[in-house]
Amino acid sequence: MKWNRQIITGSVLPSVTNDNNIEIMKNVFLFLLTFVAMVAEAQTKGNFEVLDLGNFKLHVYNTNDALGDASYIIEGNDGVVTLEQPLFRDNVSEFNTYVTSLNKPVQKIITNYHVGGTGNHDIVMIEGMPEFVKGAIYGGMMQNFAKMFGDAIVPMPTGKAEEVSLGSTQNWGGVKFSFQQGASTDFPAASIIIGGKVYYTHWAPAKSHISHLQISSLAAIDAEIAEAEKALKSGCEYFIGGHGGAAKSNMVKFKINYLKTMKRTIAANNTADSFIDAMKKAYPNLPGEAGLSDLANILYK
Question: pTM for the whole thing?
Fold first, then answer.
């Protein structure tokens, strides 16, 4: 069984304002009641793939963990930068061994949407995220992971967090990192343009039905369309996420068209069942069809 970091909150947090914290935390405990009795599948260690982008290499680590996370290493001429390090102990060990094998200094460790196994090393986060991850929403999620997965995951990191501003561009390892506002209905982290060729956001685009963990309201649909259109206009070659691996622009275009079809389908259908039937008809045999019920239940509640 594959879980997801967002499964504990029941949504991608359509809003993270204080006014909605109570409702969000209700979702936390509802999902805990559903899943806490389940046992996560035994971990299968991950695998690496490498994309040579000329002046830098992108190492994609597919963790194959219970949360479906992905981690990345950006290898420049002068050193490496890690992004979204893994959380599960076996993956942390495998990832760190691989980083060491590159025989280059680690110049920065970026923690964006996903807190991981960075130990006592200093990290980089977007401005405001260090406090957010300590709060009831994200902090509560991480505490629940500790209860569920026990020693299979590493303890919360203890290193100092350096904060960078949205709109800023940093140069690490000879590679530029441009930090931009992420989807407005997601955690208050950043979309990152890496070396002008790679676009990172929370969810990598994929040719499949979108999960209710990513889309939980009409507002979330609009926010994800806006984010995907911004990604497409960036001119990047690859599009990556904390969930999912590396995709090309055709997957971003598919996501945009899919979400616009979803909006039209919602407007044309008054019930969850008719919405599900219409989406199946629009996208026959598309992977992820089983998740349409959960999606419809949220959109039509």
Answer: 0.86
Q: Which of 205, 195, 210 is nearest to 230 (CA)?
A: 205
Q: What is the pLDDT of residue 164?
A: 97
Give residue 44's pLDDT. 53
- The DSSP output letter for 211 is P
Give CA 154 to chain center in angstroms. 19
Cα–Cα nearest to 117, from 61, 76, 201: 61
Instruction: Say how far apart CA 63 and CA 48 lie, in whole Å.
Output: 9
Distance CA 151, CA 166 (A): 35
Provide the pLDDT for residue 4: 58
Which residue in this structure is represented by tokens 């914290």?
21
Q: Please, are residues 82 and 72 in contact by the beta-carbon 8 Å criterion?
A: yes
What gap in Å lies between CA 212 and CA 27, rounded to an integer? 13
Profile the chain (301 residues) by mean pLDDT over runs of 10 residues: 49 41 41 38 74 97 93 96 97 96 97 96 97 94 94 95 97 96 94 98 96 90 97 98 95 98 97 98 96 95 85
| Residues paired with residue 50 on neighbouring β-strands, in sequence order | 59
Distance CA(255)–CA(1), nearest Å, equals 25
Cβ–Cβ < 8 Å for 214, 4: no
CA distances from 27 to 31, 98, 99, 137 (A): 6, 37, 37, 10
For residue 194, give Cα distances in angstroms to 163, 197, 238: 18, 6, 10
